[in-house]
Specification:
mainly alpha; about 70 residues
Length: about 70
Amino acid sequence: MYPEHIFVLILTILYLNNIQSMRRLYAYLLDWKIKISNLPSRQTIHYRLKRLSKKKVSKKLKIAHC
C-alpha cells in the first residue's frame, strides 16, 4: 500500500505541468530529477488519482503550506 502523500504529490505535478495523459505523466515521473521512492505503476497511479478525495487533498495541501 502506498501512502496518500505520494498521490497528492503526483496530482500536484500533473496540474502544475499541465500534463494531459497518464503516459506522459508517468514518463515525466521516471525522468524527473527528484525521484519518488517506490514509484507505483502507471495503472496504480491512474486508479488512485480517480479515487483520491478532493477534501483529503485540500486538507493535505493546507498542512503542507504551514
